[in-house]
Every structure is written in C-alpha cells, then in structure tokens.
Amino acid sequence: MSTPSNPIKFAYWVPNVSGGLVISNIEQRTSWDINYNRKLAQIAEASGFEYALTQIRFTAGYGADNQHESVAFSHALLAATTSLKVIAALLPGPWTPVLAAKQIATINNLTSGRIAVNVVSGWFRGEFQAIGEPWLDHDERYRRSEEFIRSLRGIWTEDSFTFAGDFYRFRDYSMKPKPIDPQPEIFQGGSSRAARDMAARVSDWYFTNGNTPEEIRKQVDDIQAKAEANNHSVKIGVNAFAIARETEEEAKAVLDEIIAKANPEAVQGFADQVKNAGKASPEGEGNWAKSSFADLVQYNDGFRSNLIGTPEQIAERIIGLKDAGADLILLGFLHFQEEVEFFGKHVIPLVRKLEAERDSTLIAAE
Ligand SMILES: Cc1cc2nc3c(=O)[nH]c(=O)nc-3n(C[C@H](O)[C@H](O)[C@H](O)COP(=O)(O)O)c2cc1C
Question: Is 298 in the pocket of ligand 1 (CB under 6 A)?
Fold first, then answer.
C-alpha cells in the first residue's frame, strides 16, 4: 500500500483532569494521574497519534474535581516520549503573554520543538470568579486572545519586540533563547464569529466542537474564505468521541450506557456555564449554542461527529470529515489506554488505506 499524500492527523485529549471526557457515572478505566498519562502518551505515539492536547481548568466543575496544570503536565509527557507533539492549553487572563512565551520557548528548547499551544478564550465564568480574574464579554475575550497570540509570535520571532495593544504592551523586548525550529504551532479553540475571524487572521490551527461533515464544511468554507482574503493559512481540527467496537450494536450500546448513566445535575451545571460561550456572542452562535442534553454529556459535542461503530464505519466517517475540510481529528475515549491502542491498530490503517485509494483514483482521473 502506498503512503497517502496528505494523511489526516490524529490527536487525543490528555486526561489531565479527573472524570475522563464524559460527564457520566459509567465505569471508566481512565485515570488523570501522571503514571497513567505517561504510559498513554507512549501508547499513542506508537499507535500513529501525532499530537496530544492538554486541558486547562483552575477549579472543580462538572465531574472534574482534580485538575493538573497544562504546561507542567505537557512537559512531563514530552519528557516521557520521543516523537509525540504536545499542545499545552493557555488561558489569557491567568497567563500573560510574556510568561507563556518564556515557558513555551524553554520547553521548545528542551524537547527539540515538540511543544505547541492551544489559546483558549474562556467559557467558565465561575472559574474566573473563583480565582479573582476579571470576566470579559464574549468578543472582548477574543480581542484579548488575538493580542495574546500576536504577542507570542512577536516575542518568539523579533529581536526587539514592541507592541501597543489594549490588553498588552511591550517595548524593545528581546527574549532569549528564542524557540528553535519548528516554531511552536498556535492552536485555538472556539467557533463563534469572533473565534473564526481570529483564526482567519492569526492562528495556525482552528479547533472546533464535534459536528456533522455538513456543519463542519460550512465553518471551513467561511474561515478559509476569510483567511484567503487575509493572506493567512489556517488548518482545521475537529473534536470527536470515538467508540470503536467489533460490531455497531456494541458501540451503540456503550454510547447509550454513557448517556443513561450521565449525572444530570453536573450536565445541567455545565449547560448553565457554557451559555457564556457561543450563546453569549453577539450573533448567539458558536460552541454549545445548539447542544442537546446528550451532546453535553461529552464536553465538546464529541458524539455529534459520530465516530461510533465498527473500525470500517469509523474510517469512512473520518474520510467524510476530511472531505469536509478537517486536517486533524481530536479524539476522546472512554478507556483511553486500551482504546487508543485499538484505534491505532484497527482504525488508522483503514483510514490510510482509504486515503491511498483516493490518491490512486485521483491520479487515474488526471
Ligand atoms: C478542542 C477544544 C479545546 C478546548 N480546551 C479548553 C480548555 O482546556 N480550557 C478552557 O477553559 N476552554 C477550552 N476550550 C474552550 C474554548 O477555548 C472557547 O472558550 C469556547 O469553545 C468558546 O467558544 P465560542 O467562540 O464558540 O464561544 C476548548 C475548546 C475546544 C474546541
């Protein structure tokens, strides 16, 4: 089998907060501790995963009573692996750009450039209140995030960085050492108008919640048209919760059990807080704006991407998301270690086969 020309990339959510990736009392063998996570990272890099994404959470919320910090945890995973790239979540507000730039440049130097960042703009108002951080309106959060990203890039690439923004200011700042190549990639989460416009101006990657290929296609067309007009290039990552089993019935039964055992108060609490995301934007659209109760049982609408079934079904649906414009699939699982390994063994090779077949069909048609 030949190697596909533009293989879709795979990332997994690092379970660095407790409770896994679903708000459910279903039995989960996933653990948030470091030994479990080191082993998971090693399994993932041996199984065809290129990236791992850590989460940032400062306080308990919705089945996540314990949370390890994202930058420190990312470095621990990098130290335990050799090729995996780890994306550390950064939240403007608690992080200033100068501290983030310095931390990430150091980790980049220590790990041959395997660190990336995910700039998250915030949805959890209760968390900001708990830690004494001012809470900005929806679009103001994105204005701040954009200045944050421009500052990171400026500090990383310019010898005498000067910047006069509304949120951050720098004068002739020369940070050394600079990151070595490859420069840290900048991901962002969020899908409101403000999030998309920011992606089309400054981000390397746009991460969005799970959705159907049709809905993903609409977002991609919108962002890529704007990015082109800005002379900017941005790649797309789509969230999905994967349940791969020998039969479709088995996979669907697991989904039903996750939802049947959902913790209704915790899901409702989460639903109340995420109203501060897409719904709070001027247009009322964006992440979680249309999520049902069942969608919210998975933190980022991961059931909607429908990677639930046999390896064959899942591989075909991944190609559907790729056709809709996805460059990367971000995956959550119930029992991470076992399921990442299963996915690497049974799903990724099928995806590669389908991609290679596509390539040969295209060449034959030329
Ligand atoms: C893949 C992905 C990862 C995210 N990770 C975090 C995180 O670790 N911590 C956090 O507070 N918010 C996280 N978010 C939330 C977003 O940064 C953003 O605040 C939220 O999606 C609101 O989006 P909106 O633009 O649609 O309102 C994540 C979002 C996505 C899509």
Answer: no
Residue nearest to atom 2 of ligand 1 (CA): 189
Average pLDDT, the chain: 94
Angle at 336 between CA 333 and CA 339, to 5 degrees: 75
Please state the atom number of ligand 1 nearest to the C-alpha of residue 141: 19
Q: Which atom of ligand 1 is nearest to the CA of 289?
A: 26
Q: What is the 3-state secondary structure (H, E, C) of 15-50?
A: CCECCCCECECCCCCCCCCHHHHHHHHHHHHHCCCC
Ligand 1 centre and the CA of 56: distance in Å? 10
Q: Check pocket membership of 278 for ligand 1, CB cut-off 6 A.
A: yes
Instruction: Tell me if the pTM is above 0.90.
Output: yes
User: 3-state secondary structure string, 198-227?
Assistant: HHHHCCCEEEECCCCHHHHHHHHHHHHHHH
Atom number in ligand 1 closest to CA 70: 8
Residue predicted with more confidence, 165 or 191: 165
User: What DSSP designation does 2 have?
Assistant: P
Superfamily of domain 9-365, CATH level 4: Luciferase-like domain (3.20.20.30)
Is the CB of residue 280 below 6 angstroms from any atom belonging to ligand 1?
A: no
Which residue lies with its CA nearest to atom 19 of ligand 1? 122
Please name the residue that has the structure tokens 């621990």. 76
**How do the domains of the chain map onto residue ranges?**
9-365
Helix%, strand%, coil% for the chain, nearest 5: 45, 15, 35
Tens digit of each residue's pLDDT (9 = 90 or more) over 151-172 = 999 999 999 999 999 999 999 9
Question: What pLDDT digit, counting tens, does each position of 169-187 carry?
Answer: 999 999 999 999 999 999 9
